[in-house]
């Protein structure tokens, strides 16, 4: 399939800010577009690229939580801790470990809105009902208001769950609560971690979620993603998913490109750049190899990193390998 090519630059804002301050003597490692050229046409092209059919880039990202959400004392300490400092052409960000809100993290929240509206970047909630205890409320969609309403019991109290019981009632309630969090949090979808689940429960979640985020739901543009590592969900899940993310962890299991029978066009191969991968992770692990790899027929859905925070510290420059992987999948035209 012919890849969508567009005139854009994937350099992060972090690199540009660095070049204007303390890094003047550092060797330049990647072509960086001058600040003055970031006009509306650049962002229009960027949004058009992300809306096109192409191999996507996907990243788990948590460093935004390091910001002081109330006083903003840490703003500017490092662009690696700013959502605004992520690579411009990054497609989807998994908000690992939380959601920024105007009350708790106003700086990160504004960064997120800017990246959504101006750069076309999409942000998804990370959900996992299998390995953690959750407190959530049952909520139902109100078509007349376009919102999720709380459910009350006979005593007038909101129906609350302390954790997910693996039955159709609580698992569907959990799926609805996550859908409500996505909509109310101004997010673009959800990624469910499959590890520890079974096919029956994930199918219940998929069917329930697709009532809202599926093609016939009130928010058809919201993403429904499932990620997995050692155990794969059934391929029956493919029709409900926009993407299926395979965690590769090449530092642990080597270079892995198997699809477990899933549609390669939806499969996103994610390597680990986290602390567990050590220096190799900081310097991108094998993300560029995953970016270059293609199935024997057709193409893959894309590639990404769990999680990309450490790659900001790459010896080659901020997010160097991640940005290079994006270029490998979708080469830019330089004039």
Describe this structure in words.
Residues 1-36 have low confidence and may be disordered. Strand 5 and strand 6 form a beta hairpin. The protein is globular, with a radius of gyration of 20 Å. It has a single domain (13-329), classed as Glycosidases (TIM Barrel, Alpha-Beta Barrel). It is α/β, with parallel strands linked by helices and 335 residues long. It has nine helices and twelve strands.
According to CATH, the homologous superfamily is Glycosidases
What's the alpha carbon Rg, rounded to whole Å? 20 Å
How many individual domains? 1
CATH class, anyone?
Alpha Beta
- Structural class of the secondary structure composition? alpha/beta
**Strand count, sense and closure of the main sheet?**
8 strands, parallel, barrel
Mean pLDDT value: 85
Helical content class: 25-40%
Q: How many helices does DSSP assign?
A: 9
Overall strand count: 12
Q: Write the CATH fold name.
A: TIM Barrel
* CA-CA gap between termini: 24 Å
CATH architecture: Alpha-Beta Barrel
Strand content: 15-25%
> Uncertain runs with pLDDT below 50, 5 residues or more?
1-36
N-to-C SSE string, H for helix and E for strand: HHEEHEEEEEHEHEEHEHHEH
Give me the oligomer status.
single chain
